[in-house]
Amino acid sequence: MATDLSELTDQVSRVHPVRQPGGGEWPQHRPGHDAAAGCGGRGCAGAGFQWGDFLGRPIPASDTRLANGAVVNAHRRGGLGELTVDNGNELDAVVTLVQGGAPAVSMYVRHGAKATLNRIPDGSYQVFFTVGAD
Asked: Which range of residues forms the domain containing residue 29?
C-alpha cells in the first residue's frame, strides 16, 4: 500500500496549476486530460484510475438548521413590540417583517415550534414568510 501511495503522490505532484481568469490557481483535472503529463504521460485512465475514484463515498451534509427563534437579519430593532409565531407546518420557516418596502427583521422558526421576536419598533408592518428545508 505504501508503494501505491507514493506512486499516487508522485503523480499528483506532477499536476501543474493553471492560472484562472480571476487570478486563482486551479489544478488541471478535466476528465481525460493528461494534466501536463501528471499521470506519467499515459493519461490517467492508463494509470489504472479515473478522476474521482480515490475520493470515496460522498459525506452527507451536516444539519444546517438554525436554532429556533434565531434572528436571521435585524435592520431595525429597539422597540417594545413582540411577535409570537407558531409554526404548524411540517417545514421550517423564516418570518420577515417589512416596513416601508424594506425588511426590518427576520426570524427562523423550526417546524412544530413557537418563537417570539421581541424589540420590534412601533409601526405598521407587512408579514412575509417562506418555508422549506436546506
From this structure: 2-55
DSSP bridge partners of 19: 25
CA angle 23–25–27, rounded 5-degree value: 150
How many folded domains does the chain comprise?
Answer: 2
pLDDT at 133: 82
87 and 44 in a single domain? The answer is no
In a domain, 60, yes or no: no
List CB contacts of 17: < 8 A, sequence separation 6 or more: 25, 26, 27, 28
Does residue 63 belong to any structural domain of this protein? no
Residue type at 101?
A: G
The H-or-E segment that residue 5 falls in is helix 2-13
> For residue range 71-114, what is the model confidence (pLDDT) as tens digits?
998 888 899 999 999 999 999 999 999 999 999 999 999 999 99
Beta strand residue intervals within 59-111, DSSP E: 71-74, 81-86, 92-99, 102-109
Mark whether 123 and 85 lie in a shared domain.
Answer: yes
pLDDT in tens, 2-38: 555 556 555 554 544 444 455 554 454 444 444 444 5
